[in-house]
């Protein structure tokens, strides 16, 4: 049996560096989506503006990481899959979302051990959000 080492902080929110770091991560994620050709299908799924998506992801991630529940305070339970059913999400969109977030985590210097854990969680969630096969 292997005992997992205790993270250096009580929550991923504290570990990542709090609200300012979450905002930096979200901003870099959407900036990359706009800039990198490898994320063009993901970007296309977001419509003409990213402002609303930026704000909602920031609110969501703060609470999901163990910080303030901004999203839930405003909208109630996230119900992620239901709220994303109007978007066509397949393997390509899933993979682009995770790759874009992983790149953003790297560029905003999320600690490597946390980045590894978050990437696995993001992949599980992104795969669960798929609503078409390919």
Automatic annotation (TrEMBL):
The keyword Ligase does not apply. CDD domains: TrHb2_PhHbO-like_O. InterPro entries: GlbO/GLB3-like, Globin-like_sf, Globin/Proto, Hemoglobin_trunc. Pfam families: Bac_globin. Keywords: Heme, Iron, Metal-binding, Transport. GO terms for molecular function: heme binding; metal ion binding; oxygen binding; oxygen carrier activity. SUPFAM superfamilies: Globin-like (SSF46458). The keyword Metal-binding applies. Belongs to the truncated hemoglobin family. Group II subfamily. This is Truncated BHb. It comes from Comamonas testosteroni (Pseudomonas testosteroni). The gene is yjbI.
């Amino acid at each position: 049996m292997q005992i997992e080492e205790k993270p250096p902080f009580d929550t991923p929110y504290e570990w990542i560096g709090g609200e300012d770091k979450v905002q930096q991560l979200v901003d870099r994620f959407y900036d990359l989506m706009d800039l990198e050709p490898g994320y063009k299908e993901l970007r296309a799924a977001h419509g003409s503006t990213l402002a609303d998506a930026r704000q909602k992801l920031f609110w969501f991630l703060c609470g999901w990481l163990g910080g303030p529940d901004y999203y839930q305070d405003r909208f109630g339970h996230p119900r992620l899959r239901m709220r994303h059913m109007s978007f066509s999400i397949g393997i390509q969109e899933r993979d682009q979302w995770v790759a874009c977030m992983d790149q953003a985590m790297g560029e905003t210097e999320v600690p490597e051990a946390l980045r590894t854990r978050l990437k696995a969680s993001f992949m599980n969630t992104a795969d669960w959000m798929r609503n078409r096969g390919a």
